[in-house]
Amino acid sequence: MNEIYIIQVELEYSKDEILEIMGKPTEPGNIFIYEKENYIIQFEKFHNKWRLILRKR
Q1: pTM greater than the 0.90 cutoff
Q2: Distance between CA 15 and CA 32 in Å, rounded?
Q3: CA 57 to CA 51: how far, in whole Å?
Q4: DSSP-based three-state secondary structure for 13
């Protein structure tokens, strides 16, 4: 395997902390999506934590 295309990490950040760090999402909603260069950064609520998903386009 030469490249990793998806990584998922569980975070103990609050919604407000994520928005403060990342700014306004590219696509608003219950799932925050940010588009940066060749990557899509997604935050979604998972039980009492937030899941960060990093995908390569």
Answers
A1: no
A2: 10
A3: 19
A4: coil
